[in-house]
What we know:
By secondary structure, the chain is mainly α. 61% of the residues lie in helices and 2% in strands. It contains 25 helices and three strands. The chain has helices at 5-11, 16-21, 50-71, 73-78, 93-113, 121-142, 157-167, 174-203, 210-223, 236-250, 256-271, 273-287, 304-316, 322-346, 352-362, 370-388, 448-455, 460-468, 483-499, 506-530, 536-545, 551-563, 569-589, 595-603, 610-628; strands at residues 403-407, 420-422, 432-436.
Amino acid sequence: MAGAQAYGRQQLDGEFMKSILKMGVAAVCANLILPATAIYAQTPATSVGMASEDARLTAFQDAEFSEYLQQQPQVATRLGLKDGGDRWNDISDKAATEQVKWRQASVARMKAAFNRADLSPEAQVNFDIWALEADRAVISEANRMYRPPFYSRLYSVHSQLADFLVNTHGVADATDLKNYIARLRGMPAVLDMAIERTQASERAGIRAPKFQVESVISGSEKLTSGAPFTVGPDSALWADVQAKTEALVTAGKMSRGDADAMLAEARAAILDLKPAYGRVIAWGKASLPAAPSGRVGAISLPGGADYYANELKLNTTTDYTADQIHKIGLQEVARIEAEQDALAQKAGFKDRSAFYAGRAKLYPPKPFDDAARAEYLATANAFVAKTRTLLPAYFGMTPAFDIEVVREPAFSEVAGGAAHASAPSPDGKRPARTYVHLVGTTPDPAALYTLMCHEAVPGHNTQGDIQVRQQGGPKFRSVTGYVAFGEGWALYAEALCKEMNAFPDIAADFMRLDAELFRAARLVTDTGIHALGWTEDQAVTYMNTTGRQPIERSRSEVRRYITLPGQATGYKIGMLKIMAERKKAEAALGAKFDIKGFHDLLIASGSQPLSILERRVDEWIAARANNLNK
Length: 630
């Protein structure tokens, strides 16, 4: 049904979780390593002012977060810390259980040390989110058996380890390089633990779908192909470590002799990955005969209904049921299609179908070549730069660091792949980036603009830049993300681009609606698969005919939803909530509504559950109304 124009919309699939994984966060101050026990001897809450209590809570949470980082070395690396840089996170069930207990104990310590009523509204948010994360950890732990490490289409461990080394583990000096090599050596143990956990899930009746097992096999084979494993182009990890080492030599930070010696160590460690990935491949081949196909949603698994309800709660941060979300999706699909018809008629077409047909004739899909890639990147970067100039009229806080649109690394680039964003480093030396997949066929050029609004400005890159520069709040907020808030903001940003008159023409605005239709269709499809028992083919048909995606991309999307239940629902639910909160504020404040203040409220203090967002907006409205009445 949908042609080339759908491609750009597909790339709007930039995952909030992926952008969080790559996100830079606020600089880690020296007090981050303050022992948590040092907090408890402070003056009781009743004898100090609110500002002092806020500072004391921040110090407490920073100390607790420091303890958390000792358990999560990959998070520490993302923060730019070298501590634990030679280790991977422990993905064992024992470590996960201990982490839940630690979180619960931390909240108990916090509640014993602080009276929430003595905190400012902003500090109360930090108090509540720290407590909420312990509750969410319990829910997540209950679902752990349903999340074996090779199950997710997006986050399977076989590819995430390599992705982390290439895209997150920077090499600025010899210590970083030594840690990189140590992590190479540690990969086999992580992969073996992943196999162990996956087999435990299989014994409980939870098996990865056949298509996902096949993907793990092919991905593992790709990662262990090429030099130094075989004759041919360098494998992804070998190419990466050579490039990072050569950069140290060029910068005068390492001698050629030392570099060659460390590269020899890296090469040996990479070669040792072959047997480990061989065991992953062997697991996959042994699992294929029993791997399910067809009706493979949560409802098909033992206890699947409760599992899916938990995932919806985690991803939407609401209490919406699957039935409620399904109905919201159907209503939104109908509304958006009506708006598309109206816009198409404004452009001189009979209806949306005629508009789509006209665009397909003007811009038939063609294979990407170097010229098309260069044109795409140039247009995208120019649009981002132009849109950035429009921000001061809508934001009090605006991005300070560079934002660039770049091509997805070759080892992870796929046709129609999901675009995604990464925030800048705290010092701005690493710019904010939007990654796009430029293989396969070219999209309708009108789809590019909404994608950039979503991923770059005023979407994720803008969020990341503003948040990374915030000072004074607890460090944990920078790495605590909620799909409904982060992706809800990015979808809201698409609509904001229309309000800002950023789009060059009606076609670009039409494709904004096309992208919104895609997200509404997701609500219907995700709940259809996991609560109503749709088969894979049923879901593919709906995404093709209603979601207007090409058939091959419809299947790719559906397979993602199957292996990551509920995640795709957070986008539209979050957008609807943000728009509802703005409408409420506008109605309450009338002509005194401050769009800059509203936007700063939403994105300056970090990601937050929708329930807390609602409370903060209510408090903001009350404060503004009170000030206006004085």
